[in-house]
Write a structure and sequence with these properties.
alpha/beta; 60s Ribosomal Protein L30, Chain: A; Alpha/beta knot; seven-stranded parallel β-sheet; four-stranded mixed β-sheet; 9 helices
Amino acid sequence: MTKNTQIYGLRAVIEAIQANEPIDKVFIQKGLHGALSKELEGLVRKNGINTSYVPIEKINRLNQNNHQGVVATISPITFHTFEVLADQVLSQKSDPVFLLLDQVSDVRNFGAIIRTAECTGVDGIIIPKKGSAPVTGDTVKTSAGAAFKVPIAKVDHIKDAIFYLQASGVTIVAATEKTNDLIYDVNLKGAVALVMGAEDMGISPSILKAADHSAKIPMLGEIGSLNVSVACGVFLYEVVRQRNI
């Protein structure tokens, strides 16, 4: 985590939130008390900011300055408003590709996914406000700068994005091993949104249920799953293949 993506200290973080700085996540020391800490907690709740309550050792690892038990990460990119992004893309293209990430939490996996998304022409990446990997310096580095090129939007819940896209004529395809349908048998032409799940849990059941189709990658070895960034690459290049044959 690079220094220019952090703010630390109670008052500094409060003022940053009030100034609408692009705060990605706030780390608060467990058991923190006082008027300022209560004010901060109220602000992060009101603004829906991703927040983790962690031991002091975690805070110290993040920042060795006089942090007062609070460190916030600042996104090096500007996030898009989901509805505005979706409407803009859909008005310009009949066959856009959206990528929805359900709780992908590793910053390097996230960066690798963004890089592949840029290479395959993804029109927008949608992530939840809470539970998703933050966009840090490491994310940007792993993405090889693609984080500045692919529009990324945050939503309260991935299901909200799914319902909005479905109402706009976009087909939702969930990547999961819990299906008999192979990726090669699902039509990925037209307006499509791919849903990729968390590294450990996959796609949550409610989101899986909301998808129009489910598809899996054939696994021929003994290991049952691929790294999420690799799996995402396989899916996105199948989209490219289908649209170029």
